[in-house]
Each structure stands twice: as structure tokens, then as C-alpha cells.
Design a protein that fits this description.
260 residues, alpha/beta, 9-stranded mixed beta sheet, 8 helices, 13 strands, 22% strand
């Protein structure tokens, strides 16, 4: 059986601080290929070279990856400050309408870190520019030093709603996750259900209420060691199953199936 095509949103990157590239982390492609069992397709997040309509036709599902640039606060009605960090308006122009289209169509979309924030903003929500500055919140940012293993190490618990989608997929109401983000949800967008929280109250897992397809989004990075991590693996497996179901539904039926 042909693998479902899963589009992976890339980020603008400068190679050797000079050569512009659309980059995607290896661990994203590996999680899609090895755990979701999909065909990873890197998508240049630039409206000059791709359109949302073309992407919806070409792919069976979408992985909205993490990225250093943040969603521009103008997208949720606020002015940019130094605390908001760097931006990528080209990615905003692709990812935000893509989320809304996927929600409407029931096409699977899985948001990770920045992708988690994109889903919320796309649905009308807002973001805090810096979680660690809020009273009572922990520092959710990536440790500045250490190996990749140390930076992606499990650092805090996430608790899910009883019998919610994460509880059902993971078989647990509480799990351990990594944390490598600075921003976070301030107000939830329309139909955005916050289904998981960190111990300090920071939203960590969402889905879209009433959406006809897979719309999970998490604030941590499940792509790290996805094949072996007991939390990451079932999330990417569920995402892959949803993408396969979408691919099967859009295939034209054979004559013998129609006559039957």
C-alpha cells in the first residue's frame, strides 16, 4: 500500500549564515516515516512558491513543526515587542490558513511547539510572549547548554482530561515530556480545547472541538526519539492512521467496488 503523504512545514534557515534554505529537522522526517509510516514531504513555507490549495491536494496530512521564529503578534491583534523574538511572516502566511482549511475539511494536522501555537492563533487565540516571566510559571525554554539528549530530556509532567483524546491515545492521564518553548497560550481560540496542562498551569495539549478529523497539537517536542518514547510513539501512530484514512477516502473507487 502506498504511504500517505505527510507535508512537513519547514523553516527559513541560513546555511553558513549566508545561503538561504528551507530546512526541516531530521527527527521530524524520521518520526513521520518510521512511526507514522507516512511519506515525509518537506514544504517550503513561502506563499510565493506554494499555495494552501495546492498543499491540501498534494498531501494527506500535515506536521506543523517547531521553529525558532514565533507567530507574529499582529496575527492575534497585538503589537510586536522585543520579548516576542524573531518572526517568519512567510510561514505565518502558509501555516495559519492551512490549519483553518484542515479543520474545515477534516484533513489531519498535528501541531508541535510553534505548530501548537499556530493552531491556537489560526483559530483566533492569543499567546504570551514569554512564559517564564509570568508569576508562578516555570522556565519552559530549552537549556542553553548540553548535548541534544540533555536538551530534549524529560523535564515535567503533563496531565490530561479524563477520557479525553490524549488519555485515550496514550492510556494514561499523566505523562512526562520535554520542554523547549518560550511562548504559550494566553487565550484559547474558538473551539480550541485545552486537554493537557503542565504542573504550573501552562497549556500543553489541545484539540479542536467538533473537528471532523485529527487536530491534535502539543507544546512539547514528541518528534525526539519518537520510535522509542512511550508518549511520542502512540501520538505519531495515531496521526499516521488518520492520514492513511484520509488517503484511502480520497482514492477513486474501482469499477468493481462501485458496482458492488
Amino acid at each position: 500500500m502506498t504511504r500517505p503523504v505527510i507535508g512537513i512545514i519547514t523553516n527559513h534557515h541560513l546555511i553558513n549564515d549566508q545561503y538561504p534554505a528551507h530546512a526541516g529537522g531530521t527527527m521530524n522526517s524520521e518520526a513521520v516515516a518510521l512511526v507514522s509510516e507516512g511519506l515525509p514531504l518537506l514544504i517550503p513555507a513561502d506563499p510565493r512558491v506554494v499555495s494552501v490549495a495546492e498543499l491540501l491536494d498534494a498531501c494527506d496530512g500535515f506536521l506543523l513543526t517547531g521553529g525558532r521564529p514565533n507567530v507574529h503578534p499582529e496575527e492575534y491583534g497585538e503589537e510586536a515587542t522585543e520579548a516576542h523574538g524573531a518572526f517568519d511572516r512567510d510561514r505565518d502566511a502558509i501555516a495559519l490558513p492551512l490549519v483553518r482549511a484542515c479543520v474545515e475539511r477534516g484533513q489531519p494536522v498535528f501541531g508541535v511547539c510553534r505548530g501548537f501555537q499556530e493552531v491556537n492563533v489560526a483559530m483566533g487565540g492569543t499567546l504570551y510572549p514569554e512564559i517564564r516571566d509570568l508569576p508562578g510559571r516555570m522556565n519552559h525554554r530549552m537549556p542553553p547548554d548540553g548535548t541534544l539528549e540533555e536538551k530534549f530530556a524529560l523535564r515535567h509532567k503533563v496531565s490530561f482530561t479524563e477520557n479525553g483524546p490524549y488519555h485515550r491515545i496514550l492510556g494514561a492521564r499523566e505523562v512526562m515530556t520535554n520542554t523547549l518553548h518560550g511562548q504559550g497560550i494566553k487565550s484559547a481560540g474558538a473551539r480550541v480545547v485545552i486537554d493537557g496542562h503542565a504542573p504550573d498551569g501552562t497549556p500543553e495539549a489541545t484539540y479542536i472541538d467538533g473537528a471532523p478529523g485529527f487536530t491534535l497539537a502539543v507544546q512539547w517536542h514528541p518528534e525526539w526519539d519518537a520510535a522509542n518514547d512511550p508518549v511520542s510513539r502512540p501520538l505519531f501512530q495515531a496521526f499516521g492512521a488518520a492520514a492513511r484514512e484520509w488517503a484511502e477516502r480520497k482514492q477513486p473507487k474501482r469499477a468493481d467496488q462501485i458496482s458492488a
